[in-house]
Specification:
Blueprint (H helix, E strand, L loop, with lengths): L1 H24 L9 H5 L13 E4 L3 E4 L2 E2 H7 L11 H10 L5 H14 L4 H8 L7 H11 L5 H7 L8 H27 L13 H8 L5 H13 L8 H11 L4 H12 L7 H15 L6 H13 L17 H13 L4 H20 L13 H7 L13 H23 L12 H12 L19
Helix pairs in contact: 4-5, 5-9, 6-7, 6-9, 7-9, 7-13, 8-9, 9-10, 9-19, 10-11, 11-16, 11-19, 12-13, 12-19, 13-19, 15-17
The protein binds carboxymethyldethia coenzyme *A.
């Protein structure tokens, strides 16, 4: 397989760079960490490495150096389409350069060879009630396939450390090949007649997802391509990426690691925000019996904030601009659904909510993120997140199908470069107090009852 060769050729160079950094410059300081960061989600601490993507607070995501508009322009596309082939995106993530059309099609071909989902995976999904959250079903389905892991099999036979990445790449191709069919089945199980729809040989990976959920529409295929490109990777510190990386660092195979990452993606502050954003828009639409005025929307946004809730789809831990992934979706919507009420509402929210968040003065980033509008575009084509008030979660599954591309590419490279098991050190609150006392002279009362003062609180 050429994909493997393209990675293999780069390894001596990358390994030499890392060895030089560690052996000659291992003691050079990169970052300091303060008390607020330790207690505040390790925010902004530069402690992870990835060369696959990088988020600039003022430019947004770059995948292998390319911005979202550049990716949409440069990646190879199916004949007649405006949106890229996901096989090309996966090539880019794994290999580091924009592929030719033939190279993108080669990945698409590799996926077709591996796309058959074992029947027991469908049985696992069917064993659970239909109103189980779509993300729980997705994570379970991925985990159920663990018995297929080529890495775990080879590891058991005594694989050399420098070759760990090879069966990891195999697992990653198998898993990514099957992700759209698994997601489509979960959709069909929850919201349609529970049918397994085999993919159409002539369609690409992304378009096939649409086909398998019963949408035979080139416009939706384009949305699926756009959606799966922009959600794929967002550097290493976000919950889904970091969880996958952490679990994989114990040499758990990609099925274990990705399933864990998906569980993190399911959280409302992360991937589930797309569902919450859609629900918030629907609440507004229902309350005002249509698209409200700017004044009414401002009032509703304040009501949300005053109730102690966040406005889903707005804010970001790193970004300080309108997320380019939001802009790409907005532009898509402008072309095909400009008069759709919920799209008009999402636009009005964009024109209104940042001002409200600025006035409130808490959120460091008042701008929309990727989740603020993605549900609206899906809903326009009839794709549901939930039905009859069940726990939903299908929009997050869509996010997950895409995110698997990024996290598996990172896992392959982490293995190829010999990334060790992750093991940060924790401190006790008492230790923090002692550090502060030493540096500032502040006094902290000793808690006699605390277990930490019986040894664990020593520095
Ligand atoms: N609405 C209301 N308050 C918000 C807010 C929003 N959209 N975004 C941030 N804030 C608040 C935070 O809750 C925090 O309040 P407290 O000090 O009371 O805890 C304060 O502003 C400061 O937060 P921050 O440093 O700006 O943001 P964080 O890095 O802590 O959190 C994020 C980032 C995304 C979790 C947060 O902006 C948020 O909750 N947004 C809404 C949920 C969302 O859209 N998540 C999707 C993110 C993209 C993704 O991963 O999919």
């Amino acid at each position: 397989m050429n994909l493997r060769k393209h990675i293999e050729d780069q390894l001596p160079g990358w390994r030499a760079r890392l060895k030089r950094l560690i052996t000659q410059y291992g003691r050079v300081k990169v970052a300091e960490i303060n008390v607020a960061q330790i207690l505040g989600g390790i925010r902004d601490v530069k402690a992870l490495v990835t060369d696959i993507s990088c988020v600039d607070p003022y430019q947004g995501i770059r995948l292998r150096g390319y911005t979202i508009p550049e990716l949409l322009q440069l990646l190879p596309k199916p004949p007649g389409a405006e949106m890229p082939l996901l096989g090309g995106l996966y090539f880019l993530l794994l290999v580091g350069r924009i592929p030719t059309f033939e190279e993108a099609m080669e990945v698409e071909g590799e996926w077709k060879k591996r796309q058959e989902v074992p029947a027991y995976v469908y049985d696992v999904v069917r064993a659970l009630p239909r109103d189980t959250s779509a993300m729980a079903l997705f994570s379970l389905a991925v985990l159920a396939m663990e018995r297929e892991s080529k890495f775990t099999r080879e590891y058991g036979r005594g694989l050399k450390k420098e070759d760990y990445w090879i069966p990891t790449l195999e697992d990653s191709l198998d898993l990514t090949a099957r992700a759209p069919a698994i997601a489509a089945f979960i959709y069909n199980y929850k919201f349609r007649e529970g049918q397994v729809v085999p993919p159409k040989p002539e369609l690409d990976w992304a378009a096939n997802f649409g086909y398998m959920i019963g949408i035979e529409n080139e416009e939706y295929y384009e949305l699926a391509r756009l959606y799966f490109v922009i959600h794929s990777d967002h550097e290493s510190g976000n919950v889904s990426a970091h969880t996958t990386y952490l679990v994989s660092s114990a040499l758990s195979d990609v099925y274990y690691a990705v399933s864990a990452g998906l569980n993190g993606l399911a959280g409302p502050l992360h991937g589930r925000a797309n569902q919450e954003a859609m629900e918030w828009l629907l609440e507004v639409y229902e309350k005002y019996q249509g698209v409200p005025t700017k004044e009414q929307l401002t009032e509703y946004a304040w009501e949300t904030l005053n109730a102690g809730k966040v406005i889903p789809g707005y804010g970001h831990a790193i970004l300080r601009i309108t997320d380019p992934r939001f802009t790409a979706q907005l532009e898509f919507g402008e072309k095909v659904m400009a008069n759709y009420d919920l799209f008009r509402l999402a636009k009005l929210v964009y024109e209104t909510v940042p001002e409200v968040l600025k006035q409130q003065g808490k959120a460091k980033d008042p701008w929309p993120n990727v989740d603020a509008i993605s549900g609206v575009l899906q809903r326009y084509y009839g794709v549901m997140d939930s039905k009859d008030g069940d726990s939903g979660g299908f929009y997050t599954v869509l996010f997950g199908v895409s995110r698997i591309l990024g996290v598996t590419a990172n896992t392959v490279w982490a293995r190829a470069l010999g990334a060790p098991i992750e093991r940060p050190k924790s401190v006790t609150t008492r230790m923090l107090e002692k550090i502060v006392a030493e540096q500032t002279g502040a006094e902290f009362p000793l808690d006699e009852a605390s277990v930490y003062d019986r040894g664990c609180g020593e520095l």
